[in-house]
Amino acid sequence: MKYAIIAAGEGSRLQQEGVALPKPLVKLRGEAMIDRLLRIFRNNGAEEIVVIVNSLNPLTEQHLRELQAQGLADDVRLVVKTTPSSMHSFAELAPYLGDGPFCLTTVDTIFRETEFADYIRHFQQTALDGCMAVTDYIDDESPLYVATNDNLRITGFHDRCENDRFISGGIYLLRPNALQTLDRCLREGRSRMRNFQRALVEDGLQLEAWPFSKILDVDHASDIEKAEAFLAEGSEDNRFSEKDN
């Protein structure tokens, strides 16, 4: 399976709040967020990891280039481009994702590694068009609510809660047919990943919700402390488990 990371945001809110590093390089428990995702994806069978970074802040690109030069990121395909939205960033990654199932996320999604591994294994055993990470933990300025039936099949996405139990966690497992929907969104002038998700439902793709106990986004300086506290809980130290020894 291929993995893809959208790391092309400007991180302006963090900068305004005094965080000097670009968001992908912000460290949580001593590990840059982008390095954490690269490690987790490799632990879950990544064939290739496609990453988009913007051209406005060269530090993230420099970091990844240095890893490649050291032979530590030979599995990373790097795209450097500034885009108007996360959906447009996804479109820049799409040409490299059309030959099989893939996992897409933004660089600041923070989740439990064991739950992520279960999520990947589950999708690999299904024939569904997509499996979307969801959570009932809501700590987001503008959550996207996910409507499901009793079998956790997704029936819609809402900007406001309509008796919905879950919100989107910003991690997507998809098959290549989802890229046809992405093309349609771009032709119609749509933007934002939430509108792409709505279009998947419109196009009749079979999507399942996969609950995580908690997924955090790092949008503000205060979120860094929250994320570190969350990762310190439970078994997050499994990066030092037997499989890594």
Portion in helices: 25-40%
CATH architecture classification name of the largest domain: Alpha-Beta Complex
Extended strand count: 13
Instruction: Categorize the overall geometry.
Output: globular
Oligomeric nature of the chains: single chain
**Strand residue content:** 15-25%
CATH class of the largest domain: Alpha Beta
CATH superfamily of the largest domain: Spore Coat Polysaccharide Biosynthesis Protein SpsA, Chain A
Overall mean pLDDT stands at: 92
**Helical stretch tally:** 8
Instruction: Give, in order, the helices and strands.
Output: EHEEHEHEHEEHEEEEHHEEH
Main sheet, how many strands, which sense, barrel? 9 strands, mixed
Number of domains: 2
Distance, first to last CA? 23 Å
> What would you call the structural class?
alpha/beta
Low-confidence stretches: 235-245
Rounded radius of gyration (Å): 17 Å
By CATH, the topology of the largest domain is: Spore Coat Polysaccharide Biosynthesis Protein SpsA, Chain A
